[in-house]
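Here is one record:
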Amino acid sequence: MALSSTTEVEQIEQAPKPAVFTERIEIIDIIRGVALLGILILNIPYFSMEEYFSEPWSQDTSNPNFWVHAVNVILFEGKMRALFSMVFGAGIVLFTTNKEKSGRSATWLFYKRMIWLTLFGLAHAHLILWIGDILYFYGLIGMLAFLFRKMKPKYLAMGVPIVAVIGFVASTLFMQNIRGEYLAYKEVKALQDSGVELGDDQLAALDAWEETRKEMIPNKEEVVENTLLMKGSYADVASHIRPKAWDGQTKYLIFSVWDMLALMLLGIALYKWGFLTMKWTQAQYIKTIWIGYGIGLPLVIFSFVYNTIHFHNVESALAFFEKHSINWVALIYDFQRILIMMAHVALVIVLYQKGLFSWLMKGWRAVGQLAFTNYVMHSVICTLVFFGYGLSQYAEWEYFQLYYLVVGIWIFQLLISPIWLKYFLFGPLEWLWRCLTYGRIQPFVRR
């Protein structure tokens, strides 16, 4: 169809263009692909396992589940989400830089992009029924991180420990509130068991703890009920997942902001410093590997052993919090995960620079370019395998067996993503997101 006027041609030429028309940074796509595949390692138990699934083997070193869990906690838990958040932060700069260099404001376009991502996140959580959705949070927190994109890198990096401490304080206050309810409950329960008639305030204390317990610490009967719901119809699963997802997106949102914001700001800083664009020397990356693993691994191993001793089941955790108002060891978490995450990135970059595993790098790059589609694909596959309206395998597998499926999904996405990109410019969800962001149909098929 012919364009009606020269003005229309000029408007299209001057309109902001999506990333397919600009130069992509290959290594960032590779790192995003690594993060995307790595996230599935930590997500899959929440698709497939009942509450307290780890308690029977949490201290049993003869059980393969224990060692698979140990490797996951030490090398991947928190690190992959940190990596994904960091790359998302770098993506904020990538999205806006070229548009702003041409003299156009990218603000409204970026906020449209984040609004649509937030809506995708709501659909992901409440229609596909993934309780661990991050798209909603990235959309909201991305709008906040955008405000800091022009700040000097050193100030952005300084924000990481500050925000980590704020997050620690917020979570500590939250846990202290729960601890207060528990201690009040125990005191009143002792009186009740001794035959003392309870007053209104004491009855209120019992009710307060029961409400908190039911929400956060289901008993064995409730675990069985929840498992039956997850093995039921779509409506049954939704009745269990949606309230929890909504609570996370609203009531507990304040506790999610700090972690993701800090890591997005770190991603912006590392992009500006050239760490994510291979502007550092290979010697600097190797030094990062030594420091990251050299400090981070001892910290996370200590934390893992400490938590295995003190938090191996609900009873031990309650006993700990009854005696301790603050868990200072939790401060280690953010620092060890960032150290190890940085080492992971530096290792991938060094392997890339040396030309090693080129076939794997090609697969990671393609997976990273299709990260949105591949992320939602994880949810579609896992819900259809484990939830009741699919194959109903929920609570049927051993923990270590989950990773046979993880490897299968990895292989599939590493193979299919490059093939897809031979014929199409974007993944289907990436394309839809771009169409909605730019307000017009984008090219999709390669010519």
The first helix runs from residue 6 to 14.
